[in-house]
Amino acid sequence: MSEQQNSGDLRQVRVGKLKDLIEAGRDPYKVSKYEVTSNTKYIKDNYEEMEGKHVSIAGRIMSKRGQGKVGFYDIQDHMGRIQMFAKQETIGEEEYDWLKTYDIGDIIGVKGEVFKTKMGEISVKAEEIKLLSKSLQTLPEKFHGLKDTDLRYRQRYVDLIVNPEIKDVFLMRNKIIRGIREYLDGEGYLEVETPILSPIAGGANARPFITHHNTLDIDMYMRIANELFLKRLVVGGLGDGVYEMGKMFRNEGMDANHNPEYTAIEIYKPYADFNDMMTLTENIVAYVAMKARGTTKLEFQGKEVDFTPPWRRVKMQDMVKEHTGIDFDLINTDEEAIEIAKQKGLEIKPLMTRGHVISEMFEEFCEEHLQQPTFVTHHPVEISPLAKRNVEDPRLTDRFEAFANTWEIANAFSELNDPIDQRERFEEQVKQKEAGDDEAHMMDNDFINAIEVGLPPTGGLGIGVDRVIMLITGQPTIRDIILFPTMKPID
């Protein structure tokens, strides 16, 4: 008999038990409320206080054992597990007979007295038991559990039941997200909301998801970033700094670090620059690491990552020189740069420039060395269409990307507030898009209008919240820190 057939047969047995319950006037699905006065963890942690007290708990049957007129059941609620001791003499013969028909996975309510068994196990001596929900599906076997990672992600509700330790990861995720807000609110930043749907996909170079608005009969894009709307709010003078944390959507590949739908935060502060954003980045990450783990020195997959500020700062060109020996300060033409790219085996793309080559060289030869938190600064202007040019070398920008464990975790710059320069860069991006670059930036005339009204000198920062959570919780794949990651349909 196949596993699927066996599962179907077991389900039919449970359906039969449900019919028996309904016929006996015990339909569990008609129960709409159950009063709960305590939880498993509190009872165990405070046994001296709770001993002899009567409690009302509710949870899922995870195991059952015993014989004759006495039974032991492990009950699991959202805080942990506790043993229920059931005796026919106490709850009555009829109730005890019904209890013996209950299955692992069924949800029950228990009222009884807290005590310790002869074996010293903290338990609840049942005086009243009520079936609150009948589980028609069979949970994975106790000792093997749900090990198939694909199935774990598809059926997170089962994963949370049979692998309760993963709850700690998501509780830590919640703590980190709350910590980010706490830090920014404490620094006087204002949390805002901006559109998720827009007629223009802007704020980053990425391939968007496209949908259609029937009433307006126009295509709209799910946001790839919220940057341009937040900058509009800085133009309008809404507060001494604004931020938004939420979902972004990019129609790109999926791997250990990428999910099409992910959580990010963008932060903008008027009269600040990218140096201020470096300080803000390292302070936020250190703050939430302390809040979630009690330390800024974390182990990730056998390697230590030390988030203690200050982090290392290094120019992109200097890092390329460090790991390839090539000094781009001595290379001034696109032709020279492209020749070096060919020698290094890099792919030559249409409209490629010296700046693109520097970026490609960095990605190919430098990123793998960035284990410890590092700010890589001064990106070429060609790959930074929204960043302010560097005064000393206008070919570069006042921008940084933050790396840890070789992953990019943040991106920031002194924001470009020159509307003429901005329009020219958007026009260059449009050429890139027309040449086949699906990720190139669209023209956004309203944004140009906004900064023509006047954008003050501004520091802007984007942090990949999911990647920071992966590092702090020690999870190797983004699917382990997203409750319901995007999955390929089974059919």
From TrEMBL:
Cofactor: Mg(2+)
Cell location: Cytoplasm
Gene Ontology CC: one annotated term: cytosol
Superkingdom of origin organism: Bacteria
Reactions catalysed: tRNA(Lys) + L-lysine + ATP = L-lysyl-tRNA(Lys) + AMP + diphosphate
Domain Aminoacyl-transfer RNA synthetases class-II family profile per the UniProt entry, residue ranges: 170-489
EC code: 6.1.1.6
Binding site for Mg(2+) 1: 401, 408
Residues that hold Mg(2+) 2 according to the record: 408
Family affiliation: Belongs to the class-II aminoacyl-tRNA synthetase family.
Protein name per its UniProtKB record: Lysine--tRNA ligase
Record's keyword terms, sorted: Aminoacyl-tRNA synthetase, ATP-binding, Cytoplasm, Ligase, Magnesium, Metal-binding, Nucleotide-binding, Protein biosynthesis
Note on cofactor: Binds 3 Mg(2+) ions per subunit.
Keyword Cell membrane: no
Cross-referenced Pfam families: tRNA-synt_2, tRNA_anti-codon
Subunit: Homodimer.
Native source organism of the sequence: Sedimentibacter saalensis
Recorded GO MF terms: ATP binding; catalytic activity, acting on a protein; lysine-tRNA ligase activity; magnesium ion binding; transferase activity; tRNA binding
Record field: transmembrane: none
Entry's Gene Ontology BP terms: lysyl-tRNA aminoacylation
